[in-house]
Design brief:
The structure holds two protein chains of two kinds. By secondary structure, chain A is mainly α. Chain A is built from twelve helices and no strands. A four-stranded mixed beta sheet of chain B has the order 2-1-3-6, with no helix packed on it. In chain B, strands 5-4-7-8 form a four-stranded antiparallel beta sheet, with no helix packed on it. The chains are: A mainly alpha, B alpha+beta.
Chain lengths: ~325, ~120
């Protein structure tokens, strides 16, 4: 339920902000056609959300091993979820790669496929190449999770950490190209963006794990929240600082925040961050205390809303990444 | 007995291959003479002598940019750069080995310099 709501929120945010920002309109040259133009951002969003689902399963696997209501050990079950989502992520990354090749070479996907030079496109064009690498890494994560999940007790924490590192690598690879790669201060732009995305991934993935994988397990949720609380706060701070630094590199003059589309989208992201910070503060003041005294409803509800808002912010982030910097 | 299917398969493959070739871009000359494109960046604008000619795949392309100040020029797709820290001339050579229409533009200012069509 929450997953569907989150996916819809992400998609709606992407489409709305893309429309508002005007980045939907082709910039001068658009021989790549509508399929590429409309589908590329959506593929990127689906890839990011699949990566979040992978992290959700992995982070939940790091909690003390518990049995589900039907008696199954949870980590083994989580591994199947991780493997499935990693496979989705891999397939979507291949699609993104093809669409990126089409966009950069300004011809429809069909034409890219018809030239018989697919391998050349996917290796020469950097935007396509890094998506292919992500697809390979995601496939490795899927295979690793599937194999580790065949152990009755599920993967060991060391394996889970390895898979998490792989997921982080896969999520960071496409960031090597794109607007940050061409920014004036490009090393700083890329590194702050990577830190931003990885911290956001851990934050959103961790919370999504609590919401999706601890349904009906109040005891498990209490333990998990006790552990995740500090992680979430750290991620929030890192996301805020890295995001601000990155924005400062791309938008050197504060006046551009209100005079350019990129600036407005940045302000929208800042607003989302403030809202999410507010949710966090409310958790700390109220819902976690209630959870400790045995009432989980308030925490679960607020966390679910939080995940949906986060997904919408990811959609906004994809729209932002497709908007030219001032 | 296995001959006929094999021959048929070979024929089908040949047909498919020729179709693929035919369906590709319009036939063009084999990798042509190396092409040199020049451009001048001055007063925030760009001047080029003429539109870039359509080149056939595999052609060696040299881009030569003269600027009256610091500039960064990016050849999309092939991901080649010319970086000038001050006024001067920079040059980059690459092989145009995939078909498409690739934008060559300045990075900071986003000025379109050429659209390089590779067939």
């Amino acid at each position: 339920m929450v997953g569907v709501a989150a996916a819809v929120a992400g998609l709606v945010a992407l489409l709305v902000f893309r429309e508002l920002s005007g980045s939907r309109a082709p910039s001068g040259l658009d021989y790549a056609g509508p399929l590429t133009r409309e589908l590329l951002p959506v593929a990127r969003l689906v890839g990011e959300l699949a990566a979040v689902a992978v992290v959700a399963g992995l982070m939940a696997s790091l909690l003390p091993v518990r049995r589900d209501a039907d008696g199954a050990l949870r980590p083994a079950r989580l591994s199947r979820s991780v493997a499935g989502w990693a496979l989705v992520w891999s397939v979507v990354s291949v699609v993104s790669s093809l669409l990126a090749a089409s966009e950069i070479s300004n011809q429809p996907v069909v034409d890219v496929l018809r030239t018989g030079l697919l391998l050349d496109y996917l290796t020469i064009i950097p935007q396509a190449r890094y998506q292919v690498l992500t697809a390979v890494v995601a496939l490795a994560v899927a295979a690793g999770a599937y194999l580790a999940g065949r152990r009755p007790a599920g993967p060991t924490p060391a394996v889970v950490l390895l898979l998490l590192a792989g997921t982080g690598l896969g999520a960071a690879l496409p960031l090597v190209t794109g607007h940050a790669a061409s920014a004036a201060n490009h090393y700083l732009a890329i590194s702050t963006l990577m830190v931003h995305v990885l911290a956001a991934l851990a934050w959103v993935g961790g919370l999504a794990g609590l919401v999706a994988h601890l349904r009906g397990d109040d005891v498990g949720l209490r333990v998990a929240v006790g552990r995740f609380d500090g992680v979430a706060l750290t991620c929030f701070v890192v996301v805020a600082v890295s995001g601000t630094l990155n924005a400062w590199i791309r938008v050197p003059d504060p006046g551009l925040l209100t005079s350019t589309t990129y600036g407005w989208l940045l302000l929208a992201k800042l607003a989302a961050l403030v809202v999410l910070g507010g949710f966090g503060a409310w958790h700390r003041r109220r819902t976690i205390r209630e959870l400790r005294s045995g009432r989980s409803t308030a925490f679960r509800r607020l966390a679910a809303v939080e995940v949906v808002v986060m997904a919408a912010t990811v959609g906004l982030a994809v729209a932002l990444s497709r908007t030219p910097t001032p | 007995m296995a001959h006929r299917p094999t021959a048929l398969t070979a024929a089908a493959l040949a047909l498919a291959a020729s179709t693929l070739v035919a369906c590709g871009s319009t036939p063009s000359a084999p990798p042509g003479e190396p092409v040199t494109l020049t451009a001048e960046l001055s007063d925030g604008g760009v001047t080029v002598p003429e539109e870039a000619p359509e080149v056939s795949r595999g052609t060696e392309v040299t881009l030569q940019v003269t600027s009256d100040g610091p500039a960064e020029v990016h050849v999309h797709g092939f991901d080649e750069y010319i970086r000038l820290d001050a006024a001067g001339t920079g040059e980059v050579t690459f092989t145009a080995d995939i078909p498409g229409v690739f934008e060559i533009e300045t990075h900071d200012t986003g000025l379109l310099i050429y659209r390089l069509a590779v067939r």
